[in-house]
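Might I ask for a little of your time on a matter of protein folding? The record follows directly beneath this note:
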Amino acid sequence: MVQSWRIGLTGGIGSGKSTVARVWQAMGAAVLDADAIAKQVTAPQGRAMAALLAAFGPDCVASDGAMDRAWMRARVLKQPGERQRLEQILHPLIGEEIRHAAARCTAPVLVFDVPLLVESTRWRVQLDHVVVIDCTRGTQIERVVRRSGWSPQEVERIIDQQAARAERLRAADTVLFNQDIAISTLEQRVRQLGLRFGLSSPD
C-alpha cells in the first residue's frame, strides 16, 4: 500500500503527545517513536553505547549496561554543552533507524513521533504535515511532576532546553490544544483529525 501521508507529531514534555500517537496507531497508522528508538540504541549492547562510553566515561553506564538515563539527564541539565555532545552521538543513529523503519513500512499513514522535531531542521523536509500538541507551561510542569516524581525545578529546566512554545506553534500545520479538557475529548479530536489523513475509525 502506498503511503499517502507522512505526519510529524511533536510537542513539549507533558503535552499529551503519547495519547495522540496511541489513538492514531489504533486507527491504522504506523508510529515511528524517536524516544523508543533512543532507548533501543542506548540499551545494553545498543549501537550508541560504545560512543557514549568513550565520550562520557563509565559513569554514564548503568549496572545493566544501558545508558544511565538519570545520570545523563542530570549532566545535560547542569552542563548544557553536554547536551549537544549527546545529541551528536544519538541523533544520527536515531535518524538512521527511523529511515530504515519507514522504508519497510506499508501502512497508509506514517507518523513520525519526534519530540525535538522543531529543533532539528532536517525533519520538516521529510514530512507532509506537522501536528503540534500544545498546552501551557504550567500544565506541562504539573503533569510531568505527577507522573514522574521529578521536582518542578527539574521539569522547568527540561522545558527550557526544548523549543519555545511559540516556536513549535509557528512550525505547526495543525495544533491540538490539550488544556483543561477531558482525555476523551482529546481522543475524539485526534480521531477526527486522523480521519482527515485517511485513517480508519477504530471499532
Remarks:
- The domain at 1-29+108-203 is CATH 3.40.50.300 (Rossmann fold).
- Residues 80-104 form the longest helix (25 residues).
